[in-house]
Amino acid sequence: MEDSDTAADEPVVLAYITAGSREEALRIGRALVEERLAACANILDGMTSVYRWKGVVEQADEAVLIAKTRRSLFDRLAARVRDLHSYDVPCVIELPVERGDPGYLGWLREATA
Amino acid sequence: MEDSDTAADEPVVLAYITAGSREEALRIGRALVEERLAACANILDGMTSVYRWKGVVEQADEAVLIAKTRRSLFDRLAARVRDLHSYDVPCVIELPVERGDPGYLGWLREATA
Amino acid sequence: MEDSDTAADEPVVLAYITAGSREEALRIGRALVEERLAACANILDGMTSVYRWKGVVEQADEAVLIAKTRRSLFDRLAARVRDLHSYDVPCVIELPVERGDPGYLGWLREATA
């Protein structure tokens, strides 16, 4: 199994993003893949978000967008999400990936080359 | 992009929690946000869980609760989930966050101050 | 709170897997639990995947399978997923878990012993 830290190739990460709707998540996810900022975007609709905004606890319907990419692309990916997103301060956080199926990691790196 | 390890502010983490129903996930998520143990709770309903319990493989309908917080709050968050949860041994696990959108991380830390 | 790095017991990880359908995710998840390669499998249906395949950006309906296991089992888990999966190159990636509820981590390690 390829350990992304010791392999010659670069570490891979997940970007965990939330969007205001499934359509927004799909639009942003598709743009990231088309622009090779992510190899793949997984969208989960029907998410309910509870959060504190200006001192009040609010609840909203959202969608989750999980984008898989190379670590060195994360800053550009996050900047592109900010461009495309309807929120001023979108949730874009990076989860480290330790290892993975070698064939899949190879495909992922190629799709974002 | 703000690297949560080198920044003056504290690392951020995701708490991955599973609940017996969407209502339970919402109730716990809202309590965590109201008590500033999490800035935001993302609830995904319709999850199916397969697990081994007392030697038998079981299947149950559950919901996922992802809570975003500061690393130093994780122990208190996990203790509070145990208080509120219907299970004796709830799944509460901490996923590290490497980096994120600076505006979002700033909001997250403020909402849990 | 038990820190999986300093505790005598072994680190725990999440395997993030995508499948072609809910049925496939359930079938693979159940096999992993029955064979003690995972303590628990969480299946989220209704995921939409956008990805680049042979130069074309495609979209497909998939399901997410999150399997919780011990780090030392990840390679065997990934190999077993490849055996059972309908794709040639399935997404099987390892997310590190930093800490968790001690009772839950204990149960997880026992269920995969």
Structure, described:
The structure is a homotrimer of 113-residue chains. Chain A has 113 residues and is of the alpha+beta class. The first copy, chain A, has one domain: Alpha-Beta Plaits (2-Layer Sandwich), CATH 3.30.70.120. Helices cover 30% and strands 41% of the residues of chain A. Chain A is built from three helices and six strands. Chain A has a four-stranded antiparallel sheet with strand order 3-4-2-5. The longest helix of chain A is centred in the N-terminal third of the chain and has 13 residues, at 22-34. The first copy, chain A, is elongated, with a radius of gyration of 15 Å. At the A-B interface, strand 2, strand 3, strand 4, helix 2 and strand 5 of A face helix 1, strand 3, strand 6 and helix 3 of B.
Walk me through the topology.
The structure is a homotrimer of 113-residue chains.
Chain A: E1 2-3, E2 12-19, H1 22-34, E3 40-53, E4 56-70, H2 74-84, E5 92-96, E6 99-100, H3 102-111
Antiparallel strand pairs in A: 1-6, 2-4, 2-5, 3-4
Protein name (chains A, B, C): Divalent-cation tolerance protein CutA
GO molecular function (chains A, B, C): copper ion binding
GO biological process, one term (chains A, B, C): response to metal ion
The ordered H/E elements of chain A are EEHEEHEEH
Largest interface (CB within 8 Å) is between: A-B, 29 and 31 residues
Assembly state? homotrimer
Count of helical stretches of chain A: 3
CATH class of chain A: Alpha Beta
Strand content of chain A: 35-45%
Biggest sheet architecture of chain A: 4 strands, antiparallel
CATH topology of chain A: Alpha-Beta Plaits
SS-derived structural category of chain A: alpha+beta
User: Percent range for helical residues of chain A?
Assistant: 25-40%
DSSP, total strands of chain A: 6
Shape of chain A: elongated
CATH architecture of chain A: 2-Layer Sandwich
Distance between the termini of chain A: 22 Å
Task: Estimate the mean pLDDT confidence of chain A.
Answer: 93
The value of Rg of chain A in angstroms is 15 Å
- The side-by-side strand order for the widest beta sheet of chain A comes to 3-4-2-5
Unreliable spans of chain A: none
Q: How many distinct folded domains of chain A?
A: 1
